[in-house]
Amino acid sequence: MIELYSIRDVSRILAVQESRLRYWTQTGFVGPTVRKGGRFYYTFTDLIAVKAAKDQLATGMTLARVSKNVEALKQALPDDTHPT
């Protein structure tokens, strides 16, 4: 079974403010891919994407470039990526 993470979990794990995660989701930049019971949840693959985005933005990379890189990363990862 795939483990799911709430926005609070992701904020704590990756040290990203919840408001920033919500903004990224609203703008379609990067966000959760699972919806259950009206709530969104992050998969492990989503966590990888958020971490990559955070780290690349910290280097001063443009939002457009980071977005392209994150999309390429998501395409390269297998659908069932999760820690075992």
Q: Explain this structure to me?
A:
The protein is built from four helices and two strands, in the order ααββαα. The protein has 84 residues and is mainly alpha-helical. It has a two-stranded antiparallel sheet. α3 (44-58) runs antiparallel to α4. The longest helix is centred in the middle third of the chain and has 15 residues, at 44-58. It is globular, with a radius of gyration of 12 Å. The model has no long low-confidence stretch (mean pLDDT 90).
Q: What is Rg?
A: 12 Å
* Strands in their spatial order, largest beta sheet: 1-2
Shape: globular
Outline the low-pLDDT stretches.
none
* % residues in beta strands: 5-15%
Notable traits:
84 residues, mainly alpha, two-stranded antiparallel ribbon, globular
Quick description:
The chain has helices at residues 7-14, 18-27, 44-58, 63-76; strands at 34-36, 39-41. The chain has 84 residues and is mostly helical. It is globular, with a radius of gyration of 12 Å.
